[in-house]
Design a protein that fits this description.
The complex is a heterodimer.
Chain A (H helix, E strand, L loop, with lengths): L1 E5 L2 E5 L5 H8 L6 E5 L2 E3 L14 E9 L2
Parallel strand pairs in A: 1-5
Antiparallel strand pairs in A: 1-2, 3-4, 3-5
Chain B lengths: L7 E3 L2 E3 L3 E4 L6 H11 L3 E8 L19 E4 L7 H15 L3 E4 L12 H13 L3 E6 L3 H9 L6 E2 L13 H10 L5 E3 L5 H10 L3 E4 L1 H4 L4 H21 L24
Parallel strand pairs in B: 3-4, 3-10, 4-5, 6-7, 7-8, 9-10
Antiparallel strand pairs in B: 1-2
Helix pairs in contact in B: 1-8, 2-3, 4-5, 6-8
The chains are: A mainly beta, B alpha/beta.
């Protein structure tokens, strides 16, 4: 189990070793999504290869309506 | 002199439509899609927000067909240059393109753009390869400074965002248009199609409308009304308006009246 921050909230995660697996675990569809890990943007094609580790700060953002 | 008739060109990309439309506040995704269609727009804005982990399937933009429109992400929510640059980089990763509507609005009551932070962010983003379309107050000097650092447009506000009050900054926008070296997009506060027509009649290159369309009783009809108004304003500009006079200028002949004038 690892402790990470997702969108500003503390989460305890087991069963996910990469960003891609984390999204599956959280039931977050990858369409139209951007992931930031520890301040760096994770390229959309690299989600499955990007590991997550204890203490990571993850932001999951997506487009919503706006002017 | 009539202006040249041609498409709107931003950073080398041509747009037949001079109406940009925001995607916020529509009652539902289908109405939004129909309104965008009716508006004839080719450039639509959207915002980046955190995914709600309790409800990760956000449907807001589910009906947005990005084969029809170019997406222009904004940096709304940014309170300073650092936050704006961070949002712009996230947006670029999401869209795969480098266009960004720069918004830095540190206070929520009037959502007025911070000129200093906007200029700082614009400079950094241009250096980082972005095509920057900055939302700004209607300040002609700031417009020049933003163009000087390489912004692709300037986007002066007509009135505070969502206020529907129309061209309150008209005199300043006239100066911006007169001095412009990049397209001028009048953004924010346009509440009625007549406001959009007025901006185009003045010589604005485009207008951006969101709230006035999205919260209308019938957003689709209102989108069409804004489309026609923007086109009417362009045609009027091209046609060349009559000058105003203090006294009447008779439209009908002043001779041959059915009366005998007394000498």
């Amino acid at each position: 189990m690892i402790r990470i921050s997702i969108n500003g909230e503390a989460h305890e995660i087991s069963g996910a070793a990469t960003v891609g697996e984390l999204l599956t675990l959280l039931n977050v569809p990858p369409a139209n999504l951007v992931v930031e890990r520890n301040g760096d943007v994770v390229a959309p094609g690299r989600l499955a290869q990007t590991p997550i580790a204890d203490g990571d700060v993850i932001e999951l953002v997506r487009f919503v309506g706006g002017g | 002199m009539p202006a040249e008739h041609g498409p709107l060109v931003i950073a080398g990309v041509e747009f037949a439509s001079r109406l940009l439309v925001g995607t916020g506040k529509f009652p539902d995704p289908r109405v939004m899609a129909a309104a965008l269609d009716a508006s004839g727009t080719q450039l639509v804005t959207a915002a980046l927000r955190r995914v709600d982990l309790q409800n990760p399937h956000d449907p807001t933009l589910s009906h947005l067909d990005l084969t029809k429109y170019r997406l222009l992400p904004n940096t709304s929510g940014a309170r300073d240059a650092d936050e704006a640059v961070r949002l712009a980089r996230l947006a670029r990763a999401a869209t795969g393109n480098n266009w960004i509507k720069l918004e830095v609005t540190p206070e929520p009551t009037y959502l007025l753009p911070d000129p200093v932070e906007t200029l700082k962010a614009a400079e950094r983003l241009v250096q980082d390869g972005f095509v920057v379309l900055p939302y700004m107050n209607a300040d002609p000097i700031l417009a020049r400074r933003l163009a000087d650092v390489g912004c692709a447009t300037v986007m002066p506000l007509a009135a505070p965002i969502g206020s529907a009050r129309g061209l309150r900054t008209r005199d300043q926008i006239e100066i911006i248009i007169a001095q412009a070296t990049v397209p001028v997009v009048v953004d924010a506060g346009l509440g009625l199609p007549s406001h959009a027509a007025e901006a185009m009649e003045m010589g604005a290159d485009a207008v951006l409308v969101n709230t006035a369309i999205a919260i209308a009783d019938d957003p689709v009809q209102m989108a069409r009304a804004f489309k026609l108004a923007a086109e009417a304003g362009v045609l009027a500009r091209l046609a060349g308006a009559a000058e105003t006079t203090a006294h009447a200028r008779a439209s009908s002949p002043l001779t041959g009246f059915l009366r005998n004038d007394t000498p």
